[in-house]
Design the sequence.
């Protein structure tokens, strides 16, 4: 299932609610709660996950090769 996500923000004394909400939203982004929710929205087969991961790795390697060649040509 994955790790449980508990994002909590306590409103400080005399703090405007807008500021507390902004702080809460920053924590949610940092913990990637929304991204994980969207990812789990539909079931994805393990083989499809592996394929996506492999594609990401290949793209990154190609990008690094390109950067390396550019540095070599200087």
Sequence:
């Amino acid at each position: 299932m994955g790790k449980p996500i508990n994002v909590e923000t306590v409103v400080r004394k005399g703090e405007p609610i807008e500021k507390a909400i902004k702080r809460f939203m920053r924590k949610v982004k940092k913990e990637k709660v929304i991204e994980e929710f969207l990812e789990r929205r539909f079931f994805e087969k393990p083989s499809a996950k592996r394929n996506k991961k492999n594609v990401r790795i290949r793209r990154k390697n190609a990008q690094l090769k390109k950067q390396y060649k550019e540095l070599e040509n200087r």
In short: The chain is about 70% helix and 0% strand.
